[in-house]
């Protein structure tokens, strides 16, 4: 059954799909700085599915708080699809959630670690697996951050909606990697 958004928004539809399955969600955000969690919190009744969020803006915070591999961060920096995958997968057990969402990238205006503004990676970790999407966004800093929130919420809605209702979420964090670009 397709979830129907009460207010027409993706965040509301995602929360409805999560509640239908008895699942919870947590966010691990970098360039969006908490905007994904804020979008979810804007929906009445969000507390029935949202466990919380981590804003790990600094590279070392990604390792120290979320447990992202420090060797990976040293070799590739924070703007990398594997970093997004690890953020989404590791926020699940950290906040005891069934689904983890993550955002990492460059909002601009300067490059970061050799990546141009608009280079973004989002990930969604569910009991069925992890999807990572690489985006090449355009616009100013605010537009890139907004488009990133939109993208991770759409990806999460698709992933959660694809899972059968009533599926046992299993152990948070026990996901496998599925790559999409």
UniProtKB/TrEMBL annotation:
Pfam families in UniProt: CinA (PF02464)
Domain CinA C-terminal: 11-155
Positions in coiled-coil regions: none
Listed InterPro entries: CinA-like_C, CinA_C
Region (Disordered): 162-181
Name this protein carries in UniProt: CinA family protein
Organism: Cellulomonas triticagri
